[in-house]
């Protein structure tokens, strides 16, 4: 209800006695405040309508009336409704002058209309408006619940809310990171928000967490009852966000068991891996993608954003976090995989994150898990993993026979180093770590080029291979990875 609506209500017979602007007359009334106090400001809410008969205000000094109005505009009040006929036969000229000067609408209640009638009318209209807002809020919540039951994305729910309130809105996680927003072009401040922001309504989402996410809405209109309107729908958004946590939480141990089974090539058989995979509730006949992300330090705040993005890009998702790593298995992409890749690899340009393309067989998936877990430790930005990684192949072949063969192959170097104190193993590692480039290897070892050439020839003699060939380099690299794996 606006101030102008009161003037247009014929039963009240209110008379506007000030040349108030259209903007002031369009202000929404937050409530009616009947009072006869000289200073009622401590008891007034912003945009409330002051209703008074002026009892006890029998003064003629215009400065007193000016001070009275000045205090009221600091609240500010939406208007002053003054009832004549009781303490004042006509409106005090000082009050009219003060309201005119400060653009405060002054409405006169004629003696024929009891002030109580004005109060009752305002309260009844506002009660009806509040009920209408609540009903509207529940209709909006019902629509969002229907969409959620159809596995709608968070962004779809926000777009539905936006169509009703016509105000930009966003979801913040506990770290103050925007994890979803609508419309996409709206700009929102980042960082933890511990204090209210002017023009932004923050509604905690009832998620059952110590640090819940928050729904932020731009308040484009003062007095707009957004909190009442969005209260029910906030619960639906919270449930949809919790979906990724609750589904994952019930599978935490199963997901970890599957990851460990993938890494344990010696202990876990293919049947063990298959059983562990079915334990996390995924279909072994459907292609599966793997995502591994570093969640340590500054990247901890990306957890919710990653979870929401995964559920927005795949129909079926399983996520867990352990050892500062987020590991996700996803099936049934909502779009083509190129679009999925574009979405997931552009969440944070510096977060170590590995996404593996869809794999069909469990054998391939097992390699993908090992490769992703190892690759994420060596990168400093999001990356779509190559289809094959040497580290994963080494792990897959690292049975007892392979490890013993690798150790036997490198024994001549280790014996030489033990007996003569020669750094042949160190030299071989440095040579391969620097892509078999002599200049880089010399810089890493702080040795002369002639010293490096002597050591490389000695290594070739002891191992009976050619380090200038790709086959010789690959054999040595494979052997080093195998014995390193056996020592961990």
Molecular structure report:
The protein has 488 residues and is an alpha/beta fold. It has four domains: 3-113, Udp-n-acetylmuramoylalanyl-d-glutamate--2,6- Diaminopimelate Ligase, Chain: A, domain 1, CATH 3.40.1390.20; 131-241, GAF domain (Beta-Lactamase, 2-Layer Sandwich), CATH 3.30.450.40; 250-392, 2-Layer Sandwich (Alpha-Beta Plaits), CATH 3.30.70; 400-487, Orthogonal Bundle (Arc Repressor Mutant, subunit A), CATH 1.10.10. The chain has 18 helices and 14 strands. It has helices spanning 3-8, 22-25, 62-73, 93-101, 115-149, 154-165, 226-249, 252-263, 270-279, 303-313, 337-344, 362-375, 390-397, 400-420, 424-433, 438-445, 449-463, 470-487, and strands at residues 15-16, 31-34, 48-52, 79-83, 106-109, 169-172, 178-182, 200-204, 214-218, 288-294, 314-322, 325-333, 353-359, 382-384. The chain has a five-stranded mixed sheet with strand order 1-5-4-3-2. α4 links the parallel β4 and β5. α5 (115-149) packs antiparallel against α6 and α14 (400-420) crosses α18 (470-487). The longest helix has 35 residues, at 115-149. The model has no long low-confidence stretch (mean pLDDT 86).
